[in-house]
Amino acid sequence: MKLTKEQKAVHISEMLSDLHRLIEALDRRVPRLAQVGEAQIAQDAADLRERAVSLIQRIEGQTPKE
Fold this sequence. Notes:
By secondary structure, this protein is mostly helical. It has helices at residues 5-28, 38-62.
């Protein structure tokens, strides 16, 4: 099934919104480094945030500006 330009724009907008919400949630998280495994969780969260930011930049770079 091929998407129309409007459907594709809506899909991209929703994806960007989801990525921004993910970043906001990761930024609100406070690591509890005294807990076992928390250092790895904090590192994984930082890596995920970096990937989300990179994906946003790639998407926004490919999306025509109106």
